[in-house]
Structure formats: structure tokens, C-alpha cells
Amino acid sequence: MNKHKIVIEPGTENSNYWKDLWNYRGLFYFLAWRDILVRYKQTAIGILWSVLRPALTIFVMWFIGWLFDSKIPDGVPRILLVCAATLPWQFFSTAFSETSNSLIANSNLLTKVYFPRLIVPASTVIVCLIDFFISFVILVIVMIYTHYVPDIKILLLPLFLLLALVISMGTGLYIAALNVKYRDFRYIIPFVVQFGLYISPVAFSSDYVYNHPRLPQAVKYLYSLNPMVGVIDGFRWCILGGKTMLYMPGFLISVTISILFLFIGISYFRKMEKSFADII
Amino acid sequence: MSKAIITVENLSKSYILKHQHKERYATLRDVLSNKAKNLFTANNKATALSEEFWALNNISFEINQGDRVGIIGRNGAGKSTLLKVLSRIVTPTKGRITIEGRIASLLEVGTGFHPELSGRENIFLNGSILGMTKTEIKNKFDEIVAFAEVEKFLDTPVKRYSSGMYVRLAFAVAAHLDPEILIVDEVLAVGDAAFQKKCLGKMKDVSEAGRTVLFVSHNMEAIQKLCTKGILLQKGRLLEQGPIDSIVMKYLEAYASSVSTYDISLPENYNTIQGYAYQLKVEDKNGNPVSEIPIGESWQVRVSFKLNKHTPHFIIGLGVSTVFDFPLRTTWIKPGDYEKGDYEVVFKNDDIILTDGQYKLIVGLSTEKIPFHYVEEAGYITISDVSSLTGETQLVNTKSGIFINQMKTSVTKIAD
Q: Do B27 and A184 touch (CB under 8 A)?
């Protein structure tokens, strides 16, 4: 007779999980809103940090590439090449580390109110996405500076952004759930992010790896197992109007891996979700 | 004829207590090293170190629509666990609960309040965390602000609020929740007396509007005022349920324990704070621990405490109150500078004669007038009605008042 009938039993799957998630969209919105409001409270330059941090990374990456004279495709300004890679990388690294820590950061909520726990990491990703859009200003400035006019391919950019979102969400959810039980991940995450910056083609072009004469083919496939390689190549391909190549087999591996990550991430998260309040 | 709105059948919740770790959370290293150990030891003895603890044990009850139910029990009886299971925060180990209605739970005042956000922003945030929609919050916004009495500070970050303002705002949001079932954990124990009264009044309004309320508190007076039915829990089991008055009496009787020594639970940060009280003993006039004092006998309370460092202007105080939290008397030692170490203090009562019954003992420690350890229920003292009163202080009637001592009287004839 009542539409709000709830049955609580051990072990049963909540059949209304996705409906519940939808019902709690208000909370999702408010948590994201809170994180945005709080992010740069009591800082002198506020939102400028969203631009300054990637800008500094771009500068350093450009400098390293320039110093070692890493090979880049002809007719492409190095700064633009680095910029097109750093922005998605920065998005991934903040989204990945913040989602991984999101449950612990909100442990007071987890132990005091009920809501589908997926809301917490999801709202965190949204905040990082907004940061990404703000930092996009840098790309526009660099384009103007280098007199670079993108072609129609740039319209495909959202697809690659979606891919980056899928990767950070998938890995982030998995690590977030693990982090509740094993705080070791608090120390592993910064390490992974730092390591990833050097093995992903940020300061150099992935052509360099794929066309390397001495690397065996197996290593090249192994290299594309890093899903961020696909995202960064995709970003460059869109922004530089096809002047860089998109290594198709590698890209397809990236996409498959990302979707697999998302699937594993969500299912592991769902499995562990019920015990979060007990063990956090 | 009202219908069951919450049905709880054979509910149990167990936790595994692990004795080998002190950390709350396992680390990967522990798991790996334990796994490795188990590989090499034929008998897996690791299980002997873990113990199953039943926080809730086979509980069944029904709550009808419009019931106001007080859940009573000592610390660790399972009250909070029960509320958490009902609120879907933790899942039960066994059993089944059916809830028919929109449920909101208030297990803490100000859940999710963010210190950097303004009062206005926190109202929206907290409201949505407690399950209100944006329009609901907007409609009630003015009411909430008026109730909390913080109009002037709406745009100030709550980290600049006084603790009183903070609590008022937090409770105001919670008080304007509008669910069919409201679950409230000990949240009234905050704020000043006037505001507590206001909160109780508000809660009563809410519950009289036909809503179902589940309420946990140690404050028996509040429970009796607010609730119609009671559930008494003891060590995870349901001991008794029924009309609130009889349940409260049962609880108070069960409390008339045969205990004379109370171990005070240590504060979380006991190592870093100035010091803490850790034991309370009820003794007769000769210093022998007793569980009951015959009415009229003098008694004393011995409190052991530890100071972690040199403590200037140190004061320890003992409060006596009725079980309904009405304060009767507070005694403080003379302030002084104390060195680090373990101490005992004796509070001796040989003047006031309390009537038979049970009284709560409260202990507080402070330095430079700033309290650093305060224990609401440090122990109990039970005065038995076995009278030893003779002569001048002869007992007239134990129901004549809390204090039995007779005033000095004299009768003079002033006219014919």
C-alpha cells in the first residue's frame, strides 16, 4: 500500500539500487556543489589555481621535452603538443586520486546517513571535470599564441574526454573501495600518479614508442595497456587535426581496458559497499 | 486499528573482534603476512584470536504507525547499532526488517556540516544529506533560520560560530525534517537548557502530528515525556517492551546494581589531554566499598584520576543528580597546582540525607577553569530504604521529599 516499502535483509541485492541512485541525485548535486565551494576557500587567488597548476606542469613538461629534444611530428608547436597531453593527464590524476580518497574523506557521512555510496566518488569526479573545463582556457591561450587553428576533428574531443572519465571512474572506484579497508592505498596513489606522468606520453609523443626500431611488438602492445595512452593520443589527434597519428590497435586496447576497469570498479564497489560503514 | 509500519524479525548483527591488531583498519602488510604465516602453519590458529561479538541478538518487535518508541539500555546494549541497522547504514547479519514509509534518521547533530561554508549553505547541504529535497528546504528555510536564531550570521562560515549557535542551527535543520518515520539518537544532550526544552517541544509537535518516532536517550525524563512505548535492550537482546512508564521503571530497577566500583571509560585522547578520571568508588563512612547505603548513613565517593602533566589551578568536582537528570548538588575541591601523577579524592557526605532511590554521579576535571574531562554518568549511588535513623533525625516519611533532613523547628505560643 505504501510506495516506500523497504526490506532490509542480509546479503540480498538491493533491486532498486539504480532507482535509489536517481532518487538521491539531489544529494549528488549538493555534494559536488559543496566541494566546488570549499575547494578554494581562504586562498588568495582562488579559482586561478585550477589554471595555474596545469600551466606549471605544462611548462615543466615542455622544458623537459625541449631539453632532451624529444622527437615530435613536423609542423606542430611543441608547447601545443605538451598542452594537449597535460590537460587530460591532469584531469585523470586529480580525478583518480580524489575519488580514491573520497570515501575516507567523507567517512563521517558514511557512518551517519544512508545513501547509495556511489554518489560520493561520482560527485568528486564532477568537481574534477569542472576543474578540467576551467583549465581548458590554457589550451585556447596556447592556440592563440601559436596561431594554431584546429580543424573539424576537435569536435570529437568530448568522446576522448568521456574515455578519460571512464578510466578515472573505474580505477578510482576500485581503489576507493579498497582504501576503506587497506589504507596502504593512501600511500600508493600519489606514487602511481607520479609514475604515470613519466610513462604516459606527456612530455613526448607516443609515436616515439610505437615506431621505436628496437622495441619488440609485444612491448608496444604492453605500452598501450596503459589506457591513458589512448586518451592522450586521442586528444592530440583531435586538437592537432590529425598531424599526429592515432595508433589504432593500441587505441582499441585502451578502450577495452577502460571499459573493463569501469565494470570491475563498479562491481567491486557494489560488493564492498554494504560493509563500508562497518570497517571505515 | 493501526498497522505495523516497522516489522523487525529475528534481527542479529555480529562483529568480528580481532585481538591481534590494535589498529581499526587492517593493512595490506598484515593480510599478506598472515596469509604467509598460515601457509606454513598446519593448524590455522588465527581464528582463535578473533571473536564474534553479537551487538544485536535475535531481536523481534513491531512498531505501529504513530507510535513514539523510546529505546532504552545501558551503554553497549545495542541501541545505536539497532538504529544504524534500521537506517540502512549497516546491514544486519541475520533477520529481516520491513519498513513501510519514508524514513529519516538523525544519528548526529550536524552531519556533513562543513566548517568553511556559511550558515545558509550548510542549511541546504545538511538538509539534503538528511533527505530533504531542494524545494522542501527552500520552503522551510525561514522557519529553520528563525528556530535557530542565527539570522544575523547566515552568511558567516560556521567555523566562526559559537558551539551553541552551531548546535542550534544543526538541530533546526533536523527538526524540520518531514518523514513518516523519524529515528533520533541521543542528540538532545547538546545545547543549553532553554534550547533543549525548545527541541523537546518541537520533537513532541512532530510526533503528535501522527508521525512514528524512534528515540534513543539516556535522559529518562525526556524519554518519558516524548514516548508512549519503550523497548529495553540489554547486551544486544530485547529484554522487555511495553508502555514507556513500566519500561523506564524496569530499566531503573535493573540499574540498582550491586556494584560499588565504576570504571570510567577513558576519553579517546586520554594520552594527550591534561588528565582524566578513571575510577569511582562508593563507600560507607569507614571507607568500605558498598553497593547500597542505608538511608541516613553518611557515605563517601572516592574518585581516582591521573594527571598527564603539571596542572595549574586544578579543580575536580562531583555532582549528584536524580536519575532524571535534575542536579541536586555539586562539590568542588579547592583549586591548586598539581604535579603529574595518580591521585585519589574523597567526597564525603555527612550532612544531607537523601531519600531512598538511585542517584547519578557526575565527575568533572578542569584546569584554569577550562574543563578537560567531564563524565556524565560516572557512577550511581543507591540509597536503600533500610532505615538506620534514630532520635533527632528520625524519619517521618521517605516520600516527603528528596532531602529527609528536618529543618529546625520551634513553636511558641503567641496568643491565647
A: yes
Residues B83 and B209 in one domain: yes
Q: Which residues of B touch A177 (CB under 8 A)?
A: none
- Structural domain boundaries of chain A? 45-279
Q: What is the DSSP letter of B335?
A: P
Domain holding B156, by residue range, is: 4-10+63-255
The angle subtended at Cα A147 by Cα A144 and Cα A150, nearest 5°, is 85
**Å from A54 to nearest chain B CA?**
25
Rounded to 10°, the helix A217-224/A248-273 angle is: 40
Same domain, B85 and B204: yes
**Which of B8, B17, B121, B129 would best serve as a mutation to test chain A binding (most A beta carbons within 10 A)?**
B129
pLDDT, position A14: 65
**Side-chain half-sphere exposure of B93, counting CA atoms within 13 A:** 15
Question: Could you tell me which residues are beta bridge partners of residue B80?
Answer: none
Number of domain units in chain B: 2
Phi, psi at residue A113, to the nearest 5°? -135, 155
Same domain, B210 and B351: no
Residues on chain B touching A29 (C-beta within 8 angstroms): 128
Predicted confidence band at A45 (pLDDT cuts at 50, 70, 90)?
confident
* pTM of the predicted structure, to 2 decimals: 0.72
The answer on B213 and B158 residing in a single domain is yes
Give the gap in angstroms from C-alpha B118 to the nearest C-alpha of chain A: 10
Are B209 and B314 members of one domain? no
For testing contact with chain A, the best of B25, B121, B159 (most A CBs within 10 A): B25
Residue B272 lies in a domain: yes
The answer to whether the complex's ipTM is over 0.95 is no
